[in-house]
Write a structure and sequence with these properties.
mainly alpha; elongated
Length: 110
């Protein structure tokens, strides 16, 4: 997430320095942000597809939400404050917030 923005900014800064065009740096950050948003949309589509597969196979949709919750709980337990900080930095994330994913799955995968 944030690392991608930083890497894109560094590459953009080097390019701007080499060609003497600072405006290219300003264009790099929004492009990286759009890429992350695109990745989040893919994750939402993947979750919706997983819900469909579970339903088609008459399996409980809540199992996916429960699995995500267990992963989230383990992450928070193992990482402490860093995990909470990571979750709150959703603006820079390539994945939707886990709690949003769980809620969407529990609401039918929409």
């Amino acid at each position: 997430g944030l690392q991608q923005v930083f890497q894109a900014s560094v590459v953009g800064a080097l390019a701007a320095y080499m060609v003497g065009d600072v405006s290219s740096l300003l264009a790099t950050v929004p492009a990286a942000m759009m890429s992350m948003r695109y990745s989040r949309e893919h994750e939402r589509e993947a979750d919706a597809y997983a819900v469909k597969i579970l339903r088609d196979n008459r399996l409980p949709v809540t199992a996916l939400a429960d699995a995500l919750q267990q992963l989230e709980d383990a992450h928070r337990k193992g990482e402490g404050k860093q995990a909470a900080d990571d979750e709150e930095s959703g603006f820079f994330s390539t994945h939707p917030l886990t709690r949003e994913r769980i809620e969407a799955i529990r609401n039918g995968g929409e």
